[in-house]
Write a structure and sequence with these properties.
Elements (H helix, E strand, L loop, with lengths): L1 E8 L3 H12 L1 H8 L1 E9 L13 E3 L12 E4 L5 H12 L3 E4 L2 H18 L3 E2 L11 H7 L5 E7 L2 H11 L4 H10 L8 H4 L2 H15 L9 E2 L7 H9 L2 E11 L3 E12 L11 E8 L3 E8 L3 H17 L15 E2 L6 E10 L7 H9 L4 E10 L2 E8 L2 E2 H13 L3 E10 L1
Parallel strand pairs: 1-2, 1-4, 2-3, 4-5, 5-6, 8-10, 10-13, 10-18
Antiparallel strand pairs: 7-9, 7-11, 9-10, 11-12, 14-16, 14-17, 14-18, 15-16
Helix pairs in contact: 1-11, 3-4, 4-9, 6-7, 12-13
The structure holds NADP nicotinamide-adenine-dinucleotide phosphate.
The site of NADP nicotinamide-adenine-dinucleotide phosphate (NAP) has 26 residues, from helix 1.
Length: 419
């Protein structure tokens, strides 16, 4: 039986979950993989009352973990700069790395993978995207014969959980607090709800599938905090759900990369994935559309992804480059140059009879209105709900800023419709 000697850095939610899972599921791990995972040392700058490390050696300076005889460093401290330094030092010393840290890979992936390649060291990161739900090794290995043309999905469990609960009538803030208590939300929830967590993940997938750089060039990122309860009601009347979707797709000339809320038809697979689950749709030439869904956060799911990397590592005989595939010189398209249909919610005290002033702005900007509905919010306030035809993003932005200048307009919100 192979033995893998492990040093863990960080002693928080994921690290303690990993420790417990390795102890609790020892029998399964051994019988399924013929590998014994041995935790030699833990880098923890303080104790965690939720987990007793028993007799395992504890290093208060996490960098000292690298001075022990280990085959792999498991980086679970999160954050960017200290994690980068730790990972690079580990690679320099010839110690393989497993990380769940999407932020450090997003910002420094190219540097990390290229040093790993030079030093003949593996950097594995299955749980950095969708925790234990398999996607990284699947893209790298199982789909290696395929030409992938598009990856899209709900990549942030917290956002999907909050939006699913709001669809059932729950309040945004209450649901966020519950998600934090359950350990679904990251330490800083703004990363989840402002879209950066999903953006980091689609950046990593795009790099793996299409060779975009890490960090990628600028792309459009928007979170979920402007979505209101009524938006779900108005969207549902037309057969849509609201999701936070991250997309990377390839065309001949360029790459589309974006992460933002969308209205998505209830007939689509992704619209029906509720709760903390992550869901990904991959389009390839050989197998068509492939769907992967599962828990995308939490101790147990992340431990599952980290352990899959550890087992993979002990099975690797010949060196396979840990660096992401080919690099692409294709430009990332600006969101302004993409075309969408849109859902628009205008809060106004203008009466239905005086809609002409708003309609004129749409006409001037050549944005065709497919459907319009008036919703009374109070005696003097309505929500005008508009569904548009396909148009360039930049034309809609101009149209919205002109509508915002009109008298009696309280707010204008638009959500793209994913066709
Ligand atoms: N939570 C999830 O569901 C999930 C899912 C997938 C991936 N991940 C990723 O897994 C990683 C860990 O997440 P987590 O939820 O376990 O975070 P966490 O609960 O905040 O734990 C982080 C741990 O790292 C330690 N740490 C942070 N910065 C450090 C530093 N500069 N030096 C030494 N120790 C440091 C913290 O120590 P203190 O307690 O002293 O601050 C804590 O023990 C992150 O990269 C995250 O993105 C998490």
């Amino acid at each position: 039986m192979n033995k893998l000697k492990i040093g863990i850095c960080g002693w928080g939610n994921v690290a303690t979950g990993l420790y417990k899972t390795i102890l609790d599921n020892q029998k399964e791990i051994k019988s399924n993989s013929n590998i014994k995972l041995e935790i030699v040392v833990i880098g923890a700058r303080r104790d965690n009352p939720k987990c007793d490390p028993q007799n395992t050696i504890i290093e208060r300076d996490i960098f000292n973990v690298l001075n022990h005889e280990i085959d792999v460093l498991v980086e679970l401290i999160g954050g960017v700069e200290v994690a980068r330094e730790l990972i690079l030092k580990s690679i320099e010393k010839g110690i393989n790395v497993v990380t769940a840290n999407k932020a450090v890979l997003y910002h420094h992936g190219d540097e990390i993978f290229s040093l790993a390649d030079k030093k003949n060291v593996h950097v594995l990161y299955e749980s950095s995207v969708c925790a234990g739900t398999p996607i990284i090794k699947m893209l790298h290995e199982e789909l290696a014969a395929n030409k992938v043309s598009r990856i899209s999905g709900m990549l942030n469990g917290t956002s999907n959980f909050i939006l699913s609960e709001m669809e059932e009538g729950a309040d945004f803030q209450d649901t966020l607090k519950f998600a934090q208590k359950e350990g679904y939300a990251e330490a800083d929830p703004s990363f989840d709800i402002e879209g950066y967590d999903a953006a980091h993940k689609i950046g990593i997938l795009s790099s793996l599938a299409f060779g975009t750089s890490l960090p990628p060039d600028d792309f459009y990122i928007e979170g979920i905090k402007d979505i209101e309860a009524n938006d779900f009601i108005y969207a549902a009347e037309e057969g849509f759900s609201i999701k936070h979707l991250a997309v990377s797709s390839l065309s001949e000339e360029s790459i589309e990369l974006r992460a933002h809320p969308v209205l998505i038809s209830n007939s689509k697979y992704l619209a029906n994935l509720k709760g903390v689950r992550n869901g990904i749709e991959i389009e390839t030439d050989l197998i068509g559309k492939l769907h992967v869904a599962g828990s995308g956060a939490g101790q147990a799911s992340t431990a599952s992804g980290v352990i899959s990397d550890l087992i993979y590592l002990s099975n690797i005989k010949d060196k396979i480059s840990s660096e992401n595939k080919h690099k692409s010189s294709k430009q990332i398209l600006k969101i302004d140059d993409l075309k969408f249909e849109n859902y628009i919610n205008i809060k106004t005290s203008i009466s239905e009879d005086n809609f002409a002033s708003i309609e004129q702005v749409f006409n001037n900007n050549k944005i065709f209105i497919k459907k319009i509905k008036w919703k009374e919010l109070s005696k003097n306030k309505s929500a005008v709900i508009i569904f548009t035809d396909l148009h360039f993003e930049k034309d809609l932005n101009k149209c919205i800023s002109e509508i915002e200048q009109l008298d009696e307009i309280e707010s204008v919100k638009s959500i793209r419709i994913e066709s």
